[in-house]
TrEMBL record:
Residues 241-341 form the FAD-binding FR-type domain. Its cofactor is FAD. It comes from Phycicoccus sonneratiae. The lineage of its organism: Bacteria, Bacillati, Actinomycetota, Actinomycetes, Micrococcales. SUPFAM superfamilies: Ferredoxin reductase-like, C-terminal NADP-linked domain, Riboflavin synthase domain-like. The keyword Protein transport does not apply. InterPro entries: FAD-bd_FR_type (IPR017927), Fe3_Rdtase_TM_dom (IPR013130), FNR_nucleotide-bd (IPR039261), MRET (IPR050415), OxRdtase_FAD/NAD-bd (IPR001433), Riboflavin_synthase-like_b-brl (IPR017938). This is Ferredoxin reductase family protein. It is found in: Membrane. Its main location: membrane.
Length: 476
């Protein structure tokens, strides 16, 4: 493993070689994809309600028992549909992922998941109360009768418990206590929970069986969900990784606790990666290879090699320093909308904090630009922590961009992107001092969650349009 730091002249020579190689065109992402996929999701929920009405759901509301039971059926049906939509959101379907980006998909995934989970328990409660109101067994007798007498109910309860475990560990306070690897393993039980609920719905759910339309609708929804996971979450990454091998070419220490890894091979040619995007990486070097970790590319893809730079924040990232050249690599992706295809203005501001500067370095190298079009703001606590600073400074000089290294500890008691010595300025004022015409820029942001929130709020206050602020969150 080499630990040398690239000199500016080496960086420029490498950059010149990359520019001579053919690159994929930065085709804008069609905006109608977002509207189309969002409409499809709402259409599924509308279809669920329409089938419930068609099956007499409204007529059953006339009695107290019917009101509880029919409302319970509806909440259960909507919860099931949301559960499937939740899986599809994170199935890495290219059109969905490119339309929304992983950041917004992850937030929507959480919202849909908690809503589905809440409706699931409302369904259980209302159905139990509804049947108990029309039965001499009472609440507990009815509950026991459900479990032992109805096909698939034991599996449904097991699936519900699996979903409880996933939801509990998805609460922010619980997530902070878990390593990424542990959280990721537990989260996989969500697929098990969804699968265990299916037999109960198909064996005892009249809404699934009483009409051809309902049967086609629900089987189609389940089939589409399973196909999305098998094709895009499993099949496509495996085909890409196994069709043509990708191997580690170089491992380089960029500083204390930071490592760059360069990979290459025929498989890289088949990956439509853009600067600013990230991939899920697995290295077949021993224990831990089954867990994927997300890392952004830190150099513009050239069709022959890919490079990422990561800080050692867990077991997965710490073992990067021990990788050996020749190690086989499995990848998923690319993912994310923080690339040149979403650019709407000629001028661009690239803002990165800490290790979040890595996708900005790649964007600086790849974005088509004229002198003065691109400004890079690199936020660090100290110059010693400025990862890839020499490379960025050299690239900026070569491409006519401006590079600002902003050093210093955060402002106490204030959510801000600024260092302590700039506390006399508001966040928006500081941005406007850097770029008075900021409103005519696209703003790309990467860093910790709080820092990105502060940058986004400041950019909006300074006049930047909401759809011109591009960021990607990696918090799990």
């Amino acid at each position: 493993m080499t630990t040398s730091t690239a000199r500016p002249d080496e960086v420029l020579a490498s950059t010149d070689r990359r520019r001579r190689r053919p690159r994929r065109a930065l085709v804008p992402v069609p905006r109608w994809w977002r509207d189309a996929t969002g409409t499809a999701g709402w259409a599924v929920l509308l279809g669920v309600v329409a089938l419930w009405v068609q099956d007499g759901g409204v007529q059953e509301l006339a009695t107290w028992s019917g009101l509880l039971t029919s409302t319970g059926r509806l909440t259960g049906l909507v919860a099931s549909a949301l559960l499937l939509l939740q899986v599809v959101l994170m199935a890495r379907v290219p059109w969905v992922e490119q339309a929304w980006g992983q950041d917004e998909l992850a937030r929507t995934h959480r919202l849909v998941g908690f809503t589905s989970f809440t409706l699931l328990w409302v369904h259980v409660l209302l159905i139990t109360l509804g049947y108990a109101a029309a039965s001499p067994l009472g609440i507990w007798g009815t509950t026991w009768d459900f479990v032992v007498s109805y096909p698939g109910m034991l599996l449904a309860w097991a699936g519900t418990l699996a979903l409880v475990m996933v939801v509990v560990t998805s609460v922010k306070r619980a997530r902070r206590r878990l390593r990424y690897e542990s959280w990721h393993l537990i989260h996989l039980y969500g697929y098990l929970g969804a699968g265990l609920v299916l037999p109960h719905q198909l064996w005892t759910g009249a809404d699934f069986l009483d009409s051809t339309a309902a049967t086609v609708f629900w089987w189609g929804l389940w089939g589409t969900t399973v196909a999305a996971v098998l094709v895009f979450r499993l099949g496509l990454p495996l085909v890409r990784s196994l069709r043509s091998p990708i191997r580690v070419l170089e491992v380089r220490a960029e500083g204390p606790g930071v490592t760059s890894v360069t990979v290459g091979g025929d498989g890289v040619r088949h990956l439509p990666v853009r600067a600013g995007q990230f991939l899920q990486w697995r290295f077949l070097d021993g224990p831990g290879w089954t867990r994927a970790n997300p890392y952004s590319v830190s150099a513009a893809p050239d069709g022959f090699t890919l490079r990422f730079t990561a800080a050692h924040v867990g077991d997965g990232s710490a073992r990067l320093a021990t990788l050996r050249p020749g190690t086989r690599v499995l990848v998923e992706g690319p993912y994310g909308r923080m690339h040149g295809g979403v650019r709407g203005h000629r001028k661009v501001l690239l803002m990165g904090s800490g290790i979040g500067i890595t996708p900005m370095r790649a964007l600086l190298e790849e974005l088509p630009q004229r002198p003065g079009d691109v400004t890079v703001v690199h936020r660090v606590r100290s110059a010693e922590e400025a990862v890839l600073a020499d490379e960025i400074r050299s690239l900026a000089a070569a491409r006519g961009a401006r590079y600002l290294l902003v050093e210093g500890h955060r402002i106490p008691g204030r959510a801000s992107w600024l260092p302590r010595q700039a506390a006399h300025l508001t966040d928006a004022e500081a941005l406007l001092q850097v770029l008075p015409d900021l409103a005519r820029h696209d703003v790309y942001v990467c860093g910790s969650d709080g820092w990105m929130d502060a940058v986004r709020a400041a950019a909006l206050e300074a006049g930047v349009a909401p759809d011109a602020v591009h960021l990607e969150r990696f918090a799990y």
